[in-house]
Amino acid sequence: MTNSPISRRYMLGLTGATLATPSLLLAQEAPREGFARNNVMSFSTQDWRDHFDTLGKASIVADTTSRALHFWSGDGQTYKIYPTSVPRTDELTKRGYTEVVRKRVGPDWTPTASMVERNPELKYMPPGPDNPLGTHAMYLSWPAYLIHGTHDTRKIGRLSSDGCIGLYNPSVKELFAMVPVGTQVRII
């Protein structure tokens, strides 16, 4: 065996480093805490005028196709986009106009009759880390439909809910602080 200055291990390591470089460069642009980069890549901005006549107290558009929630403050100064979870099926998805009628920090959760029919093991849950509504909830005028947080961050960016729009807990906390009761909501 000859003593070559370049070993097989060195070449394998160099090849691996070369292949990893694009991923490492993308990782340098770290997303905000709690946000997965692949969840925000396909977001496109929305214009509130395409959905509402006025901004009102504030406006929300939940886009179930791109899995994003768009928020505009009533004065038009603030526009935010958040990645969301959306209903698993079209059958569970309610589309149209509604509004925020109530807000709650530390919500409790009671499964609907149809949820219990699909999974009889589901039971009432008080606020806490196992609660599927996360840390904050905004109740819509449609019964059993909410915009809420989730402790299960794997759900964001996916078809994973029973009808609600879910956000990362840090996102729903931020949104909750900006959304007044009476905010108009459109789910598309």
Written account of the structure:
The chain is of the alpha/beta class and 188 residues long. 21% of the residues lie in helices and 27% in strands. The strands form two sheets. The protein has an eight-stranded mixed sheet, with helices on one face. A two-stranded parallel ribbon has the order 4-8. The longest helix is centred in the N-terminal third of the chain and has 20 residues, at 8-27. The protein is globular and about 70 Å long.
Name the features.
4 helices; alpha/beta; 188 residues; eight-stranded mixed β-sheet; two-stranded parallel ribbon
In short:
With 188 residues, this protein is α/β, with parallel strands linked by helices. The chain has helices at 8-27, 37-40, 113-118, 169-178; strands spanning 58-63, 68-73, 79-83, 86-87, 96-105, 136-140, 146-150, 159-161, 165-168, 184-187.
Helix content: 10-25%
Gap between N and C termini: 68 Å
| Main sheet strand line-up | 3-2-1-10-5-6-7-9
SSE order in H/E notation? HHEEEEEHEEEEHE
Structural category: alpha/beta
What is the overall shape? globular
Beta-strand percentage range: 25-35%
Mean pLDDT score, rounded?
83
Rg, please?
A: 21 Å
Which helices and strands occur, and which strands form pairs?
Elements: H1 8-27, H2 37-40, E1 58-63, E2 68-73, E3 79-83, E4 86-87, E5 96-105, H3 113-118, E6 136-140, E7 146-150, E8 159-161, E9 165-168, H4 169-178, E10 184-187
Parallel strand pairs: 1-10, 4-8, 7-9
Antiparallel strand pairs: 1-2, 2-3, 5-6, 5-10, 6-7
